[in-house]
Amino acid sequence: MLTIRRAAERGHANHGWLDSFHTFSFANYYDPAHMGFGALRVINDDRIAAGRGFGTHGHRDMEIITYVLDGAIAHKDSMGSGSTIQPGNVQRMSAGRGVMHSEFNPLPDTETHMLQIWIEPDVAGIAPEYEERGFSDAQKRGRLQALVSGDGVDGSMKIHQDARLYAGLFDGDESAALTLTAGRRAWVHVARGSIVANGVELSAGDALAITDESRVELSGGKNAEVLVFDLA
Questions:
Q1: Do 190 and 205 contact (CB within 8 A), yes or no?
Q2: Domain termination residue (choose one: 82, 102, 134)
């Protein structure tokens, strides 16, 4: 079964310094029909003004993944981690029993565009963890590169959940497929450009929920950057 979630259907909040679209219920946006998808709880499509950002705030018992599309985001946390994340680098933070952090756009005159993703963990109360890893365009070109997973497949960062997040870049004749084992489902999110997923045309911000299917098939990309979640 295929269920389309169009970009324009998402929740939206514009705070001036932050323009954010919410795929699932978040903050003041509440839609009981879109509370998450399996363990996938949040995909926030954020644009952060130059020199602005999120002040110090806390999280617990959540796997948080930051994927920067344009610009940069400076991260500092109570674990002592500090880094400036740029396109190509992916951040994974397991909040565990509690972590405080801040996220700012350090660029003086450039907006930052990023996706913040939350996945519910399968364990609570662990020590918080931080990790960052680079994935080149070559690793994602015309294929699905695992970014995070429960088992560290294909050089991905390990999270505390039976879930895998892949990213791919597709243009022209490039295509890829992902086999879904019995009982698993997938969520396809188009970060930019356009692509055909399982016969459905999707544009930037669109998503496709795939259930009771054996494969995810991607083709017909036009400058597309795509995230695919493989979920129990």
A1: yes
A2: 134
